[in-house]
Amino acid sequence: MSVFRHGDPLDDFDRLDLEQSRWLERRPKCKVCGEHIQDETGIHIEDYWICEQCIKDNRESIEDYE
Ligand SMILES: [Zn+2]
């Protein structure tokens, strides 16, 4: 079985898109806004994650958990 990296550009795009959504599914979700955390900017508090934007928006209440 071979993998075609230079086939139809549309196929490549679809595959990339699929790979990205699979990757996204494995990312943790922000406890506050429900968005996937796509990089390492979120923080992990006990058993959930909070994204960078929500940390900024809720800094005072989040600090209570630390
Ligand atoms: Zn968030």
Strand fraction: 5-15%
SSE series: HEEHH
- Cα end-to-end separation: 50 Å
Number of helices: 3
List segments where confidence is low: pLDDT < 50 over at least 5 consecutive residues.
none
Q: Mind sketching the topology for me?
A:
Elements: H1 9-26, E1 43-45, E2 48-50, H2 52-57, H3 59-63
Antiparallel strand pairs: 1-2
Zinc ion binds next to helix 2.
Explain how this protein is built.
- The chain is mostly helical and 66 residues long.
- It is built from three helices and two strands.
- The chain has a two-stranded antiparallel ribbon with strand order 1-2.
- Strand 1 and strand 2 form a beta hairpin.
- The mean pLDDT is 80.
- The structure holds zinc ion (ZN).
- The site of zinc ion has 8 residues, from helix 2.
The gist of it:
The chain contains 3 helices and 2 strands.
Task: Considering the chains and any ligands shown, give keywords for the structure.
66 residues, mainly alpha, two-stranded antiparallel sheet, 2 strands, binds zinc ion
